[in-house]
Specification:
By secondary structure, the chain is mainly α. Helices cover 39% and strands 4% of the residues. The protein contains 7 helices and 2 strands. The protein has a two-stranded antiparallel ribbon. A hairpin with a 2-residue loop joins strand 1 and strand 2. About 4% of the residues have low confidence.
């Protein structure tokens, strides 16, 4: 059957059937904007669907005659407008990239617990030299031979050993014995033991053996024994 053979009443009936089917399938909310019979309309008039466009954004540009005007108040929000009124700092991208690379090299990485780069101070330099000569601190302890050409570590961190509660009497370091650096601790222990001084005297006696000062010392010892 062609559309030309349908009357207005038949088309109206088909539209009503389609509207009822849409209401049954999608609910009344999906077709809330569909056409509803008006008491002012005639029964034989054709009903059409009215679409609700919702909130339409008002255009930024308005045309009056042949001239277009832009609403500058709507181009930026309040936050961006406040930022646009302030001065901005523009940095060289090469400098920014170089700085980021240096910041990544500032630590040893997450695999090494982000150890910082070594800042060689005079105190740290003396401590590292003392660690190289640690074999002479205690003659009863033996360490692996250290390479004399070893360099300063690139990444390092200086910390303080904190003893546990079970080591209060066995391995606790008293506050009066705590010093800022390893060198200061060694000097304090040397004052109490005198190990380095005695070792120095032994080395000097060996070096001066057979010389004039050696015989002088022997004569003084003999003369002291004779007079006593």
């Amino acid at each position: 059957m062609d559309d030309e053979d349908l009357t207005d009443d038949q088309i109206d009936a088909l539209l009503r059937q389609a509207e009822s089917r849409l209401r049954g399938l999608n609910g009344t909310s999906a077709v809330a904007s569909a056409s509803i019979p008006h008491p002012g309309l005639e029964s034989g008039s054709r009903r059409t669907m009215r679409l609700d466009p919702g909130d339409v954004v008002k255009p930024y540009v308005s045309v009056s005659g042949d001239v277009a005007h832009a609403d500058t108040r709507r181009l930026l929000d309040d936050c961006e407008r406040q930022l646009s009124g302030k001065s901005r700092r523009v940095e060289d991208p090469v400098v920014v990239k170089t700085r980021s690379i240096e910041s990544r090299k500032a630590t040893a990485g997450s695999d090494w617990f982000n150890l910082p780069r070594t800042i060689l101070t005079p105190e740290l330099k003396r401590d590292l030299q003392l660690l190289k000569m640690r074999s002479v601190l205690d003659p009863k302890r033996h360490y692996k031979k250290d390479d004399s050409n070893s360099k300063v570590p690139v990444f390092s961190h200086v910390g303080t050993i904190v003893e546990g509660p079970t080591e209060f009497y066995s391995a606790r370091l008293q506050n009066r014995d705590r010093k800022r650096t390893l060198v200061e601790e060694v000097m304090v222990s040397e004052t109490s033991t005198g190990r380095f001084r005695s070792r120095y005297n032994d080395v000097q006696s060996i070096k001066t053996s057979g010389k004039k000062s050696h015989y002088k010392a022997l004569k003084e010892k003999r003369s002291w024994k004779i007079h006593n």
